[in-house]
Structure formats: structure tokens, C-alpha cells
């Protein structure tokens, strides 16, 4: 009975999700204010037309993943304080995004770029570099897709009281996500994010009040009990966390906050914005969403008293054990939907980004294909014909990437789990190439590539050698420091750059976006500030 | 003078002191950590470290707002 009710609620919402995702692009193909119908830009970055609200919903949606329900509660349960790094780096990253977001947005828009690989290829005028970065980023992103698949599988099988098996749960996450993202791209993800955010805010808000009252007669007694009985959980290095102390927290927050602003999925959100102002406002509003993360952390610690003796991966279910134990089936189903959507939205954007990188940067780097494609588009920023072909290729890659992650989840789950260890720290190594490169002309392609290679290799050696953290320091930050040192050394000692393009073409000089209808070279038409 | 390719656009990217406000979250979350890494005193029942992290999280939008206010005062918002 319980299983039927919660599964029905869940199934209904999954259908709604796909419908909503597909509806997002209705009417965009014909209208769109002169934008090219159904091109790669429309699909990958929503035609750069999303306003403040959609950007907020989307960026909050993609950062609040299934980790938030499972991992945050699980870390809170297992370790306590170390889980706070998530809040810290997201907050710092949002603040940093105030500068970086508009900068990347303006650069991408001026040069018609759709992602970080595209930006790198343009900055260094090396299409192969875009393709290489696309490969690296794909290796880093695939494990995240798998994390979402397994996360959703666990949630689905738990909230259906076992009626839906893990394997079917995995498949569902792939099917639902692929169904809408291949068709409607970033815009579809933004629409689904609306449903997701409403449910997440409502269910977490409810749980934040309900669980303490149901089990502990309120917050006072709960907090009192935690302080009295579990003080080990309340400061760094936490409870038996294996070296997750203060230094680890500092270095991880630092390197992650730098990485999150150039993370391909974050950048997809930036580039989807209608204007830079939407991004600046969001840098201000997004941190409020982070407050919600305190809920699973707190409830994870509350679970210590209700369901003690969870261990290892089992602790990830700390929050859901409380939910299933204390709520009627329809509510369990609804909370399951919120958690499942927290897998689906980020997964959609991960897949979309992989598709975009391959469609634009890998396909675009193959001279034979590019020659055929750009020949038709003489004079335009990017022609309709190559855009159509790149989009089709991108959509294919989305399906392939999702299917690959699903297949590996079934057959060799450990491969991706191991890879996921270097995902974030590997991606961090792109920071100098991308951010420093966009503001500092002298950074040569040789320098940026040398730094990147050394950084990635070092991170792999440290992480796979079991040396992360290194004496308490996050291995990603060690890699980044060496990466930067190598890049600087090669810039000063290595070959000089031979790029003759003007600075304005290469760098992201003006953090201010060119106002609408202001020509890049036109001095006279610059209107006075509108606000 | 590379910036002269863009006449009429302000050259202020190097002179936005208000952007220093964006370092505030780093100070609150990271720089003072050794001082706040403690259970007592509890504030509103919250152990001190968690109270402080909540405070820092809520201060982040304020720091961005201050940076933005500085930008707007210079006529670029």
C-alpha cells in the first residue's frame, strides 16, 4: 500500500518533469526575436536569454545535487563539522562569481562562444587545445553523472519501499534526463529547475521543522543533546574524519571556490544569462540558497540519535531513514521527488555541457569538418549550417555520455568512483589557463599547457597514490600552486607568444558588457547608464 | 595603451576598490577559523562553530551587495 502510493506520486512527477522540460522550447523555434532557429547557442546556453529568476533557479538547481540529500547528511552523520566546507566554498564561489560571471559572459557573447573549451580555443587561437580541454573535462564530469545516477537509484528504491529496484532506479534517472535535455537543452533544464527548487525548498523547510519536533520535542532539546553528547562532531577535525582538519578545510574551500566559478556547468549557467546584470544580482541572491544546506547537515546529525550504527555508504541514507520512518507514504514520495530532481537537473546540465564541448570543440577542431562548415558561413559570427550540424552531434554525444555512465554504473562502478576522486581537483587545474589567461596577455599557450599538464599529473599521482590530503593540504591546491609556478616560469623563460591580435580580441578587458546595440568600435553611440 | 581601442569605456577595471568586499566571505569562513573552531559558547542553542558558519553564510550576500553598491556608485551598474 505504502509502496503503491509513494511510487504513484513519484511516477506522476517524473512524467510532469519530462513534459515540463519539453514544453520549455515550445514556440522558441519560430519566434526567438531573430535568433537562429534551433541552433547550438539556443540549445547549449538558452540563446543567452535567461533573466535573473531563471538564472537563479538554474544555478541553484545545478549546485544543489543529490549530494545535498545524501552526502551532506551522510557527512554530517559520519564526521560532523568537515561537511561545512560545502557551504564555505559555495558561498565564497558565489561572491567570486560577481566578478568572474560577467567577465566570462561578456567575452563569450562578444566572440560567439558557448563554453569553456570554446573560450580557451579562442583565447589561445588553438582549436586542438579546446578539444584537449574537452577531453579532460569529460573525464572529470562523467563520474559526476554516475554519482547522480547512483544517488537517484538509492533514493528511488528507498522511497518506493523497495518496490523499484536499484537497477531500475538507475535506468529511470538516465531515461528521464535524456528525454528532455536532448531536445530542450539548457532552457529545459531551467524549467525543470523551477519545479525542483519549489519542491526542495518546501520539503527541506518542512523537514527542518518537523523532524526536530517529531523526535526531540523541538530544536532546544535536539541541539542541547548534540552539544552534550556529540561534541566531537561539532569542531574540526570532526569525528574520526581521517585528517579533515582546519588546514584541509581552508585549502579545500580556497581551491573549490576558485574551481566552482569556472566549472563547465557553472559557466553554462553564466552564458545563459540575458545580461551581465542578471549575473551580478544572482551573485547576491544565490548564497541564500546555501542556507538550505544546513538542513540536511543538521538532520544528518539528528539521525545519530534515531538510527545509530549506520556506517560507510549506509550513512548516506541518514536523512531518508528519518523520512521513511516518520512520514506517511505520499509525503515520502514527494520528498523522494525533490531528491530525484536534485539528481536530474545537475545530470542534465552535466550531459548538456559534455555534448556542447564535443559538438563545438572536438568536432570543430577536425579541419575537414570545419572547412566544410565554415565555408558556408563567411561573414557571419557562426553560420546556421555548422550550428545545426554541431547541435545534432552534441545531442548524440549527450545520449552516448549518459549511456556510457549508465553502463559503467552497471558493469564497473568502481572505475568512475575512482575517477571522481580527481574530478574537482583535476578541473581546478584549468584555473590559470582560463582565468589568468583572460586577464594577462603574456601568458603563452606553451606556459598554460605546461602548467595544466604538470598540475593534472601531480593531482593524479597524489590522489591515486593515497596522499590526499597531503599533510592536511588539499591535493588540488598543491597541484594548482605547482601549475601556476610552471606557467609563470615558462611564460618568462619560454618562447614568446606570436599572436598579433589586439588585446581587445584576446583578453576579457572590460568587465562591463558592451551595452546592447553598442558597436565594439563605436565611441559615439555609448549611451548613458540606464540606472 | 591597449584600452584606447575602446574609447568611451571607462578604464576602471583596475580601480574598483569596492570589489575588496568580495574577500569578506574568505575572511569570515577561513581567516578567523582558529578562533571560531569551538563548541562553546552556544548561541541560540547552536554550537559556536555552526553559529559562526551560519552567520558567515548570511553575510555573503551582504558583501556582494556592498561590492555592487560601490560599482553602482561609479555609474557602471
Automatic annotation (TrEMBL), chain A:
Its main location: membrane. GO terms for molecular function: transmembrane transporter activity. Keywords: Membrane, Transmembrane, Transmembrane helix, Transport. InterPro entries: Na/Glc_symporter_sf, Na/solute_symporter, Sodium:Solute_Symporter. The chain crosses the membrane at residues 6-25, 45-64, 84-107, 128-147, 167-186, 198-216, 247-273, 285-307, 327-354, 392-410, 447-467, 473-493. One of its GO terms (cellular component) is plasma membrane. CDD domains: SLC5sbd. It is found in: Membrane. It is a multi-pass membrane protein. Residues 509-531 are annotated as: Disordered. Belongs to the sodium:solute symporter (SSF) (TC 2.A.21) family. This is Sodium:solute symporter family protein.
UniProtKB/TrEMBL annotation, chain B:
Keywords: Membrane, Transmembrane, Transmembrane helix. The chain crosses the membrane at residues 18-36, 48-67. This is DUF3311 domain-containing protein. The keyword Transmembrane applies. InterPro entries: DUF3311. It comes from Streptomyces sioyaensis. It comes from the Bacteria.
